[in-house]
Amino acid sequence: MCSFTVETRSLGKYDVIIAGGGIAGVFAAASAAEEGAKVLLAESGGCLGGTLTSGAVPSIMDGSGKGGYLKKLFDFLNERGMSVARFGKKVDESGRKIPGRIVDIEGCKVFFDRLMRDSGVRVLFYTRVAAAKLGESGGKRYLKRVLLSTEAGNYEASAEVFIDATGNGALSALSGCRFESGEPGTGRMSPASTEYSVTGLPEDYDGTDSGAEKRAYSDMLKANGIEISAEEAGIVRLPALKEWDVSSDYQYDVCPSDILSLTDAVMNSREEVFETVERHKKIPGYEGIWLMHTADHLGIREGRRVFGEYRITEGDMIQGRHFPDGICLVRSKVDLHKIHPGDTLNASRGIRTQPYEIPYRALIASDVSNLLLAGRCLSGDFYPHASYRMMGNMAATGEAAGFAAAYAVKMKTALTLVPYALLRERMKEYL
Ligand SMILES: Cc1cc2nc3c(=O)[nH]c(=O)nc-3n(C[C@H](O)[C@H](O)[C@H](O)COP(=O)(O)OP(=O)(O)OC[C@H]3O[C@@H](n4cnc5c(N)ncnc54)[C@H](O)[C@@H]3O)c2cc1C
């Protein structure tokens, strides 16, 4: 361990600082600003949306029937023909697109930019939250300020409330919060994947809808000498209609907190994708296939699950539990991808879930009094994480965290004392 003296410039004081601008972070920022908070959002990449945009994952699951900023996003996209149905027909008899959960990534990026500008949120791109300074009050630690490492040098900023929306729980780890990751007992994580888009598939090819279609497609690749590392290839037709999104590789045991393992996985993944498409061109009927784009970010399904005031358990899913502080109804089932190459268990692991709620307490970090968790680093066990991590739910956790943070600042109260009834009222369109 060695320490450096780093010169920093001050960005001043905010009500709420949010680390990470994925779907959870952006909605947290918008919702906090809507409640009157002065908000800073630091994003290490060059666009907002996280896995949805930089990770090129165009399918927003468990968002159907939900409202809030998620509905505003869908409205924006639908008006512009920038979403299409996942299953079945993509256009109706008059040639109009049938809107659905497959979304246009560039449309999402612009929606998020406009939302931030209209909300008055100070966004910083190419800015990584790199260190945390803590204090102690009443026997509990609290976050005072963060170090922001940017393209333009180092800055520091302070806030009343911080929100960790980094996906992997980076700010929580920097603040010394306890966390878990991976399968209990083995620590094995869900695989990481590089999503990519191709063009040049047969004009009428609508993608692999059902599990049977995915397996048939993967078998066809295999019969032509193409071995993919994922259990099956998932292909969806994108709103442009002449472009398809593909997911076909698994990188195992990628630890997002180990930069060597992460970098190797990025290169291995990109190599596999490139070779898969190159060989695909040799299959009769597919000569025109062309690799358009690989995701800028390796898709990490699972990172740190930070300890909160409540941990969502397997029992909560099985019983379909509701809570007095419930902020979002989760309908998605457990969808665990193979966690090692020999894994033959099914995606649900035999767990039969009923719709259950995410309680606000799962967003309050238990070890740092003014830190909220939004998005996939929230407090839950391994199997629940494989269910609630869908973007429709992660959007809700952001919106709830932003509201709670702004309320706590406005009312000068602790995060644990934000009234549940108010939160539920604010989040009713997600319940
Ligand atoms: C391959 C793959 C396929 C998936 N398929 C689907 C699907 O089909 N449908 C679905 O609904 N969900 C899917 N998911 C899950 C879903 O995409 C994620 O759970 C969800 O997008 C997580 O959102 P988030 O905002 O919590 O985090 P993220 O999207 O991970 O965003 C975190 C953001 O924080 C930034 N960041 C990280 N560290 C720092 C730091 N220190 N400082 C500043 N910024 C930082 C990152 O750059 C990123 O922009 C998939 C996930 C993966 C990986």
Describe the structure.
- This protein has 431 residues and is α/β, with parallel strands linked by helices.
- The chain folds into two domains: 301 residues, FAD/NAD(P)-binding domain, CATH 3.50.50.60; 99 residues, no CATH class.
- Strands 1, 2, 5, 6, 7, 8 and 17 form a seven-stranded mixed β-sheet that branches.
- Helix 1 packs parallel to helix 3 and helix 1 runs parallel beside helix 9.
- It is globular, with a radius of gyration of 21 Å.
- The model has no long low-confidence stretch (mean pLDDT 95).
- Bound molecules: flavin-adenine dinucleotide.
- Flavin-adenine dinucleotide binds next to helix 1, strand 6 and helix 9.
Key phrases:
four-stranded antiparallel β-sheet, binds flavin-adenine dinucleotide, 2 domains, globular, single chain, seven-stranded mixed β-sheet, 10 helices, alpha/beta, 431 residues, FAD/NAD(P)-binding domain, 28% helix
